[in-house]
Structures
1.
Amino acid sequence: AQTKVLAVTARADIFPQSELVHAEQTALRFGVPHMFADFNILNCTEFTSNPGNRCYVCKKRLIGLLKEIARVNHFHFIIDGTNASDLTDYRPGLKALQEEKIVSPLKEAGLTKREILLLAEELGLPAVPDNACLASRIPYGQPITSQKLEMIEKAESLLHSLGFKLCRVRYEGDTARIEVPERDFEKIMIKKNREAILSGFESVGFLFTALDLQGYASGSLNKQLKKGVYSHAGKPFKGPSQQVEKQ
């Protein structure tokens, strides 16, 4: 018997529009039933206050939305794309997955992000964007707003249009801090690229633009937690080792 499946893509300000398009096109290519689900996470002050466990708060609410969709459509399991690489960094959302008994086949198979990309290439599957939600570009403790998320999305979109596939724009108030791999440093300083970035970033609302000399690093803002320099609601946040169960 044919397996009954439904692909669900959450639609929210924290997700780039390009990812929604990619998800829809991928589902269409493989003939998989697909739907968008509006996810109004910015209505949740527990999330927008940007605490150290922001991802846990978000994941719990998202799973609640998915469970309701599963119930209405008579599905028994919810599957997500968590992989083995996610276990090597601070991922408070993993705790929510465990609590809600979400199935993660890629993680269970022990597949890392790199291995998944290689397998996808061998099978002729479309490349998966190496991305995280836009809220991860805003330092912990700084409020998350739709305006900030829009600025970040537009800035990263500009970098993508200039050929920088792997990049992050970290929101630092009036300053945009660009992270690209070290191999792209020379390319980003080419005059036409630098001028396009400066003018483009200014047009979306950034007064200053900086290049992070440490280069691209996934989850780089987690340094705040690891070094104990972040506080929330007037209370120090001790970091992932003391606040979240180890995964």
2.
Amino acid sequence: MNRYQNQTPRAAFAIAAVVMSLVTIAAFVGPPSAIDAGDVWTMMARADRATLVTISPARVDVVASREAPVTVADASSVVAGR
């Protein structure tokens, strides 16, 4: 009986998968971080003066309700027919 021999090299596919993952991460993380890097200096330049902030409403009321606990009967100890 002939044994099945896989013709695709597993190591090559594993290396290709890692490379494609790194390229994808670099493409979706690198350029956005480079674009935002210019805004960091702008924000630091504006941070020299204080800005008055008002919170409206100044108070938040949190109301919670809890239902009474539910009692569950154990039906495994009941004998059928009695």
3.
Amino acid sequence: MQSTASAADSNYQRDLGEGLLLRWSTRADTANIAELVGRVFRNSENDAPNAYLQSSVELLMSGNHPLMGPGDYGVVEDTTKANHPIVACTCLWQHQWSYENVLFNVGRPEIVASDPTYRKRGLIRALFHMVHARSEARGDLVQAITGIPYFYRQFGYEYVLDLGGRRVTYLSAIPPLKQAEQEPYTLREASVEDVPLIMRYEDQRRASSMLWAHASEQYWRYEIRDGWQENPERYRKAVVLLIVDAQGEPVGFVIHDSQRRGTGLGVWGVEVDERINLQAIMPSVLRALQQRGIQVPTPKPDTLPLSEISFMLGRNHPVYTILGEELAPYQEPPYAWYIRVPDLPAFLKLIAPVLEDRVKKSPIAGYTGEVKLDFYNGGLRIIFEHGQFKAAENWQVPIYDANAGAGFPALVFLKALLGYRSLDELRYAYPDVWANTETAVVLQTLFPARPSFVTPF
């Protein structure tokens, strides 16, 4: 059976052969998807199904989740077997990010799973064709995914942005509260009434990140109440807490794991009011996190005792500065987001105001010219007149008299576009990245290296 519908449409179906049917999900698929995901995401074949991810699937398919609905799972169904099991799947989330202050929508494939006995048949490739079609049909200019090394390069993705980054504080290093002193700051669980304040605290950090993932008020309300407080039997991923002073007034927030699977408590967010001394707050926060880490449940009875607090706050964060080497001696560098930008001219047109502003504030103010980039299998042309962005278009290097000003493997260019690496860093790492002198100055102006901390939610 082959559908005449677009791959983005809810009624799309595609016969993959051998009784395998590619289609979009309905709410009735929830149990089958959860069964597959729970079975695939185990450390060993003898482990019990992954109950946390099974619960996550149920929440994602509930119709109440802020990032997707019950029809946003792409699935492959085996129609030859009883109960028509789901043998491969991935879902599509909707994010909103910004480049400097320019907003754009991002499609995020997540929880990619395939039954081990059905692998090496191109099922994930077929699923990604479908989710990319839906993402692009709804206007997403970018797709992004977190995942295992290398795999998603096969589908047009490249490592482009920092993901994670960790500093560890050992419990033995946490300064104790002095005798007869009262704790100046404590933690309390957040409520939905606190959401505007949490969003304000979080937004303070946006200026230090070139790209930013915007968590909506709906998302925060869901995380605090709709997803967990109203579903206490389900596995909660993280706990949102307010930092309050001795009078009970909020001064910031902390987010930590709801369960401890190893010797450390994971902390995913720490932001405080910009008028408050973070250095004065952190000793109280560390002591409170130590107590909470001791009390949070562990999914396995043989989990070792708490011995550390892991701050997973990106490559750079004010908390790291305050902790220093003495309180956070161990660190791990960030992994990376996979990013896909299928229509580079469209994305460049979107961020044109940012590019014009960079030219205006640079030594090439008023620039007029063409930037021609050879991607070795296609290319890109960017046109400026008197400092104004005029056009961006796909471009093919002529067979004779090639006049490109720079060359990049196409996906490597994304690292420059999104500020992940400078032109000099790319030329050092990739022998097939080059630029003549004039074009190098323009590229360094348009696409400077700048840090980004994009929250994976």
4.
Amino acid sequence: MNPYQNLPDSAFWKLAVANKSMFDIDNIWNPKSIILPKHNVVTFGSCFAQHIGNALIERDFAWMSTELPPPGLSKENCKKFNYNVFSCRTGNIYTASLLKQWVEWALNATPVPTEYWEQDSRFYDPFRPGIEPNGFASVEEMQSSREKTIKCFNKAITEADYFVFTLGLTESWFNKQHG
């Protein structure tokens, strides 16, 4: 006896797909739920999540953006300043550990670090280094922007019907001092 002997043909690639005409392939995937255009969907993660968000918009689905650009910002500058790239301005979230960090901040489960990077009298958020391509004018401006994004992330995770997260192919780093 083996764990596979009682599975249906749809559980096996050769029987369900390889030995069939493409017109005869069916019943290989039965979703537990179906995303409808009316469902609020948020997308975060790697660049692939951006493509999913764009595909939802193109198909008139309710892709949620919780951190809206300032009125009058051009489409080009929206992209440059990371508005409507993901459902809020988190930047790429490549790993499960970074996603966990954002969730903990959004739910006030852990304190938000005060860490920042400085270069040429400009300030950068180490958790979203590409959000402001020219950096922030001050640490306070950077921290205010981070706090706004955390509030918008909270709205995304508490109001969305579906949360799409795509992993990236990158390493994960941990700060020894802050865990």
